[in-house]
Design brief:
The complex is a heterodimer of chains A (about 325) and B (about 350). With about 325 residues, chain A is mainly α. Chain A has 2 domains: about 70 residues, no CATH class; about 220 residues, MetI-like (MetI-like fold). Helices cover about 75% and strands about 5% of the residues of chain A. Chain A is built from 12 helices and 2 strands; from the N terminus they run ααααααββαααααα. In chain A, strands 1-2 form a two-stranded antiparallel sheet. Chain A is globular, with a radius of gyration of 24 Å. The N and C termini of chain A lie close together (about 5 Å). By secondary structure, chain B is an alpha/beta fold. Chain B is built from 14 helices and 12 strands. In chain B, helix 4 crosses helix 5 and helix 7 runs parallel beside helix 8. The C terminus of chain B is likely disordered. Classes of the chains: A mainly alpha (about 325), B alpha/beta (about 350). Chains A and B meet through helix 8 and helix 9 of A and helix 2 and helix 4 of B. The structure holds adenosine-5'-diphosphate (ADP) and magnesium ion.
Chain lengths: ~325, ~350
C-alpha cells in the first residue's frame, strides 16, 4: 500500500509538468497577446515590452526559463494584475473556490446518497419516481441556466438572498468561514448536477447490492431492515459513488468556472476566465498547475479510500 | 409443546406465487409436510422445482414483491408463523431457525471480517457483549473445524476457500443453537471431496446438538445417508413423500425413479454416461391441465395429459402424486427383490465416507 502511494506520488510530478507544457503550447499558439490594445502600439514601445518580458528570445529559451521557475514554485507576476504574483492570487482565490466546491460536493453527497438509497429501498414508489425525475432535471439543466434562474427567483423577486459576490463571515488567513447567504445559491447551482449523478449511482448500486446473496444471509440472521441496509448493503452500494468522486472533482472544477462567473465570485474559475481573455500566461499556467495537482492527488485519495472500503482490493 | 419427538414444524398447503411479466409463477403450489424434533428431512427436486422458495417462505424471506405467500399455514412449535409480527419473526430468524445457502462464495458479506459477521448474530439474539461474541465466534469456528480459528477469524471471506466459507456459514448458523437448521444445497457449489466433508460436518453437528435439519438438494445421492424422510418436489408440488429407506427401496413415482437413475452410481464404470430425465422442467407460469411431469414421463398415458393426478397413499408413511402410483410402486418393489445386492450398495454408498476425505484443506 505504502509503495503504491509513493509510486503514484512520483508519477504526479511528471504528469503536472506535462499538463503545464500542453497549456504552455496552447497559450503560445493562441492569437493575440497581453499588451495589445485596439489602437495598436508604436513599434518602439512594443519592442521594449517584448524585451522586458523576454519575448524576443527563442521559444526554447522562454520555455526552459518558465519551466525552471515553475519547478522552483515560482510562477512570476501576473501580466494583468501587475503588482501581484501568481502565487499571491492563488493564495487569495483558492480558498474561495475550495469552499464553494467542497460545499457543493458535500451537499451533493448528502442529498444524492439519501435520495438514492431511499429510492432503491422503495423501488417504483412515488418517492423513487419523484427523485429520479428530479435527478433527470438536474442532469439536463445546465448550471448557466439554473444559476440565473435562482437569482431571478430568490434575489430579484423574493429579495431573500444577495444576487452575487462573496463574503467571508469569519476571516482566517486568506480563507475562513463563508457567509452562508452568499454561499447558498452558487453551491446549490454547482451541486445540482452531482446530486443527480450521485442519486442515480447510489440507486442503481443499492438495487444491485440488495439483490446479493449476502443481503439475504443478513436478513436470515434476523437483522432489521435498517441494520441490513446500514451494516451490510450501504458499503457495497456506495462503491460506484466513490469511484465517481475522482471525475466529479474534475467536473466541479469545470463547474466553478461557470458558476463563479454567473455569481461574480472572486475564485480561481473567475480568475481563470479573465486570465484567458487577457492572455495572462503566468496566471493561466499557475491555475492550471494548481488544478492538475489537486485532481491527481484527489484521485490518489479515492483509490486509497477504495482499498479501505473493499478489502478484496490490494495494491 | 417441546416434548421429545413432538412435531417441530408443520407446513400445510403452502402456496407462494410470483407475479411476473409472463404471468403468475406458482413456485410453490400446495406443499405440505411435517418435521419431527431431531429429525432430518430431505427436499429433493430438479432446479426450479420450488425447494428454495418453500424454505424462504418458512422464514418469510420471499422477496415481496414480486413474491407473495398466497395461502397456507406454517406452525413452528405450534406457533403460527404467518400470524407473527415482523419483530417477532426476526426473533425466530437466525435464532431458532437458521439457514445456510447454496453458494458460500456470495453468501458472506465480502466487506466484513468473518469474526464480525459471526459476532453480529450472537450480539443480536443472545445479547452478547463484543468480547463474549468474539469468544463465541472463535469457539464456533473451532467447532466447524477451522484450523487456527483465533487468527483466521480476523480474515475477510475472500481469503478462504469455498469449503472453508461454507464452514463459516455453518458456524454462523449454529452459533445461537437453533432448533431448526435449513441447509439449501449446501454442497452444490463445492468440489466432490469437500462436499463429503461438509455433509459429514452437518451430520456430526446435528448428532451433537440434536438440531432438526431440512436438507435441500437436487441430488438424491446427497440425502441418502443423511435424512429420515424425503419429499420430492416438481413444479412447485410434492410428487412423492416417504421415509428415506422406503423411497430408495420402492419409489412410487416415475419422476423419483428418474432422479434415482441420475444419481452417479459408484459401482458403475468410469466414463459411462449418466442418465438424465429427458426434457426440461416446465414453465410454472403456464402448466398444462394434466400432470406437470406428463410431457417428460416414460410411463405417461392419455389420462396423464388430461387429468390432474391424485396424491395416492401407498404405505403408512408413503404418498405419491401419480395416476399409476400403485403400479409404479409395486413394480419398483418387485425389481428390488430381484436386484437386491446392487440396490443395497447404492443406498449405503454415500454413508461410507472414507476417513481420507476428513482432512482439512
Ligand atoms: N424472485 C423471483 N421472481 C420470480 N420468480 C422467482 C423468484 N424466485 C424464484 N422464482 C421462481 O420460482 C420457481 C422456483 O424457484 P426455486 O425455489 O428457487 O427453485 P429450486 O430451489 O427448487 O431450484 C422457479 O420457477 C423460479 O423461476
Ligand atoms: Mg434453490
Amino acid at each position: 500500500m505504502l509503495r503504491f502511494i509513493i509510486r503514484r506520488l512520483l508519477v504526479i510530478l511528471p504528469m503536472v509538468l506535462l499538463v503545464i507544457t500542453i497549456a504552455y503550447a496552447l497559450i503560445k499558439l493562441a492569437p493575440g497577446n497581453f499588451y495589445a490594445t485596439e489602437r495598436g502600439l508604436p513599434e518602439a514601445v512594443e519592442r521594449n515590452i517584448r524585451q522586458k518580458y523576454g519575448l524576443d528570445k527563442s521559444w526554447y529559451v522562454q520555455y526552459g526559463k518558465t519551466m525552471w521557475n515553475i519547478m522552483r514554485g515560482d510562477f512570476g507576476f501576473s501580466r494583468k494584475y501587475q503588482d501581484q504574483t501568481v502565487n499571491e492570487i492563488l493564495w487569495q482565490a483558492a480558498p474561495v473556490s475550495a469552499t464553494l466546491g467542497l460545499t457543493a460536493y458535500l451537499l451533493a453527497l448528502t442529498l444524492g446518497l439519501t435520495f438514492g438509497t431511499l429510492a432503491a429501498l422503495r423501488q417504483n414508489s412515488a418517492l423513487d419516481y419523484g427523485s429520479m425525475a428530479a435527478a433527470m432535471l438536474g442532469i439536463s439543466l445546465p448550471n448557466f441556466v439554473l444559476g440565473p434562474l435562482l437569482v431571478l427567483v430568490f434575489a430579484l423577486t423574493l429579495f431573500w438572498l444577495p444576487p452575487a459576490r462573496w463574503e467571508w463571515w469569519v476571516k482566517i488567513g486568506s480563507g475562513g468561514i463563508p457567509n452562508p447567504r452568499f454561499l447558498l445559491m452558487p453551491a446549490v447551482t454547482l451541486a445540482a448536477l452531482y446530486t443527480a449523478y450521485i442519486a442515480r449511482l447510489t440507486r442503481s448500486g443499492m438495487l444491485e447490492v440488495l439483490r446479493k446473496d449476502y443481503i439475504r444471509t443478513a436478513r436470515a440472521k434476523g437483522l432489521s431492515e435498517r441494520q441490513v441496509v446500514i451494516r451490510h448493503a450501504l458499503r457495497g452500494g456506495i462503491l460506484p459513488v466513490v469511484s465517481f468522486t475522482g471525475p466529479a472533482l474534475a467536473f466541479i472544477v469545470a463547474g466553478t468556472v461557470v458558476v463563479e462567473r454567473v455569481f461574480a465570485i472572486p475564485g480561481l474559475g473567475n480568475y481563470f476566465i479573465n486570465a484567458a481573455l487577457n492572455r495572462d500566461a503566468p496566471l493561466l499556467l499557475g491555475i492550471t498547475a494548481f488544478v492538475a495537482i489537486l485532481v491527481l492527488v484527489f484521485n490518489l485519495l479515492v483509490d486509497i479510500a477504495y482499498a479501505f472500503i473493499d478489502p478484496r482490493i490490494r495494491y | 409443546m417441546s416434548e421429545e419427538n413432538g412435531t417441530l414444524l408443520s407446513v400445510r398447503e403452502l402456496r407462494t406465487y410470483f407475479e411476473t411479466e409472463d404471468g403468475t409463477v406458482k413456485a410453490v403450489d400446495g406443499v405440505s409436510f411435517e418435521l419431527k424434533r431431531g429429525e432430518t428431512l430431505g427436499i429433493v427436486g430438479e432446479s426450479g422445482s420450488g425447494k428454495s422458495v418453500t424454505n424462504l417462505s418458512l422464514l418469510r424471506l420471499v422477496p415481496q414483491p414480486p413474491g407473495r405467500i398466497v395461502s397456507g399455514e406454517v406452525l413452528f412449535n405450534g406457533e403460527d408463523i404467518f400470524a407473527l409480527s415482523e419483530g417477532e419473526m426476526r426473533k425466530i430468524r437466525g435464532k431458532r431457525i437458521a439457514m445456510i445457502f447454496q453458494d458460500p462464495m456470495t453468501s458472506l458479506n465480502p466487506f466484513m471480517r468473518i469474526s464480525k459477521q459471526l459476532m453480529e448474530i450472537t450480539q443480536l439474539h443472545l445479547g452478547h457483549t463484543r468480547a463474549q461474541a468474539y469468544e463465541r465466534a472463535v469457539e464456533m469456528l473451532e467447532t466447524v473445524g477451522m484450523p487456527d480459528a483465533r487468527t483466521r477469524a480476523r480474515s475477510y471471506p475472500h481469503e478462504f476457500s469455498g469449503g472453508m466459507r461454507q464452514r463459516v456459514m455453518i458456524a454462523m448458523a449454529l452459533s445461537c443453537e437453533p432448533e431448526l437448521l435449513i441447509a439449501d444445497e449446501p454442497t452444490t457449489a463445492l468440489d466432490v471431496t469437500i462436499q463429503a466433508q461438509i455433509l459429514e460436518l452437518i451430520k456430526e453437528l446435528k448428532r451433537k446438538t440434536g438440531t432438526s435439519v431440512i436438507l435441500i438438494t437436487h441430488d438424491l445421492g446427497v440425502v441418502a445417508g443423511m435424512t429420515d424422510h424425503i419429499i420430492v418436489m416438481y413444479a412447485g408440488k410434492v410428487f412423492e413423500q416417504a421415509t428415506t429407506r422406503e423411497l430408495f427401496a420402492c419409489p412410487g413415482n416415475p419422476y423419483t425413479k428418474g432422479l434415482l437413475r441420475s444419481v452417479p452410481d459408484p459401482s458403475h464404470e468410469e466414463g459411462t454416461e449418466l442418465y438424465q430425465i429427458p426434457g426440461l422442467p416446465p414453465d410454472v407460469a403456464r402448466l398444462p391441465p394434466g400432470c406437470p411431469f406428463a410431457p417428460r414421463c416414460e410411463r405417461a398415458e392419455e389420462i396423464c395429459r388430461r387429468e390432474y393426478p391424485p396424491f395416492v397413499q401407498l404405505n403408512h408413511d408413503h404418498h405419491s402424486l401419480c395416476h399409476f402410483a400403485r403400479e409404479v410402486y409395486d413394480k419398483s418393489c418387485h425389481e428390488r427383490e430381484s436386484r437386491k445386492p446392487a440396490q443395497e450398495f447404492t443406498l449405503n454408498a454415500p454413508q461410507s465416507d472414507s476417513p481420507a476425505t476428513e482432512q482439512n484443506q
